[in-house]
Write the structure tokens for this entry.
Amino acid sequence: MNQTYTISIFTEDIIGLLNRVTIIFTRRHINIESITASESEVKGIYRYTIVVTVSEEQVQKLVKQIDKQIEVLKAFYHLNSEIISKELALYKISAEALNENELFTRIVNQNHAKILSISPDYIVVEKTGDEREILHLFYDLEKFGMLEFVRSGRVAITKPMKTLTSYLKELENKNKTTVKHFNN
Amino acid sequence: MEKHKKYNTEVTGAEAVILALLDENVTDVFGYPGGAIMPVYDALYDYMDRLNHYLVRHEQGATHAAQGYSRVSGKPGIVFATSGPGATNLITGIADAQIDSTPMVCITGQVHSHLLGTDAFQETDVVGISMPVTKWNIQVTKAEDIAPAIAKAFYIATTGRPGPVLVDITKDAQFGKTKYKHEKCESIRSYFPCPKVNEEEVNAAAELINNAKRPYILCGHGVLLSGAEKQLLALAEKADIPVASTLLGLSAFPPTHPLYVGYLGMHGNYGPNYLTNECDVLIAIGMRFDDRVTGNVSKYAKQAKVVHFEIDPSEINKIIHADAAVMGDAKESLDLLLPKIKSQKRTEWLKRFADCNDVEFEKVIKEAINPNSEKLRMAEVIHKFHNISNGNAIVVTDVGQHQMITSRYYKSNIPNHFVTSGGLGTMGFGLPAAIGAKVAQPNKEVVTVIGDGGFQMTIQELGTIMQSDIAVKIIILNNNFLGMVRQWQQLFFDRRYSFTEMKNPDFITIAKGYGIKGKKVTERANLEDALKEMYESKQAFLLEVVVENEENVFPMVATGASVSEITLE
């Protein structure tokens, strides 16, 4: 059964590593639904958040292949129920919406959205929420004339997970065990 | 001899490349110069007494030579190539090394860093292109980063599950100055090459093996890579377990041992394939359940519990679910397992393999090695060659029918003495890989068996043999067909022989042009003497044997069929 999984990947800060990771999806003909990358709470360690809809068997194999990349510290996968996630969306709509100011304001307020800027030609609205909430507001605002719409990828915090620093300590200990060289 | 006295002195980036290789105990390099790697070749000029460079005739040849070198020596193979076409020509060999877990360090020149991304002359994004087929790669744009990058490259290539790495060095980094310092890479915080063997996993494996009535060992390349041949033998003997080998695992277990039951795969032996579906515990050691081994996965060993010894965690449950997985180095794992294994006898179970072997001998082998046909057959050539060399030669194959015949009929006695392109199935692998093997083991006889098709894919490497005087022996099994494809056309495409017939050149004349002795055999009566002459020759020798045009390799597990549906004719 296919489900939506959020894959969190902790990596070193290396040029091209994101490419190495996305190749793993491309090769298996799996579409990446959203992807974000930014520095984590630990300096120099990056966190990629990738959303895919696949079977559990597929996501397990994907994560193992990702983990296998030399400069990936660790990859995890989680179901929606195991994470707290948000996306950010920006909506640029025609300033004509102000002609129906009451309705427009009500929609923005009911959706817990925020007006970021108003100019003579357009209004920019900001909304943080899950995919469903963001699309809901999209359809509500569409009638005013949608000039532009952009959605960020998902960012997610996992509920049951060790802190990255404690995990890094484990990794250090793991590497203290002797490594056998192939040519020895 | 002292390698060099350059610590903490200022050198060019190019010289740092050479010094770093010397510090990694490199003695041999296969390569081809060109614009973007000229500074490295210039630096090499001063170190020719310490670093042997073999000038190949095409960069693909350098990669396969490096593979052959590595497979018989255990050392990583080293390749130099220039940017652009030089670098792209490496890709096939790198992909081959990746899928067959062969350590290789490729060093490519790159255009000046200020030209990167401008479509400069001979610029290709080789880091991007090689990403899916390397274990790791890196682009270096500063002289001071060269030595650490090379140290890291060697560590990654040779540890854990070995593989190819590529270090791409811009020309300005090669020209730049740096204080040379080499520090061996001992660990990388994000990389755990060799999981520490978990005692509980070993206990679970031991319990399954001890309770098994019909256990069956599949040994793979991992046994050779880890040097676990003795442990494997001890395990098999202690618990009286039959052992079959994958293509890449050949030579890990003595082929004359009573517990050795044969070779797995599409054209492997009858019993080893057929009885996979009758064992109760399948013990996979350092192998990855390639589709040529499993046949139809949904009908593969469904009745058996599977014990999987594997160093690469991503291989566990990738194809076949493991009931007990022991992650780690095969040798270390088997060392821990052995004392927990009970001694047993399994006469009846072993007899099943012997019976299957009798059937295969009657239906396939007897006729193949001693045929009634007028024309020579591939198997009789390999069988005779085996007898002449007593199974002690380093045998390197190309890819196709001759490869399957050689794997079936040449019984390699000595570990790491059988070299072939398994996962990628690269035609053109044989000749350059044999060159590399001979460079690594100059005192051994290296014989490559090649088809007429594959030989012409890297035929130019005869030039490397000539220039560097490498005494490689070549057997061409010439059937004037791309035989394996033709066999499939016959069996599955209604004998529509679409572009598989070859009009071949006179191979002996070509060899002569390169100063290589040659002989062509068409008659059975001349075969043995010709094989002896080839084998005993002190120099390179090309023996062309003209064989039956339309011979098929059997047994066979057809695509989509189960291993138990293996056919003998």
The radius of gyration of chain A is 21 Å.
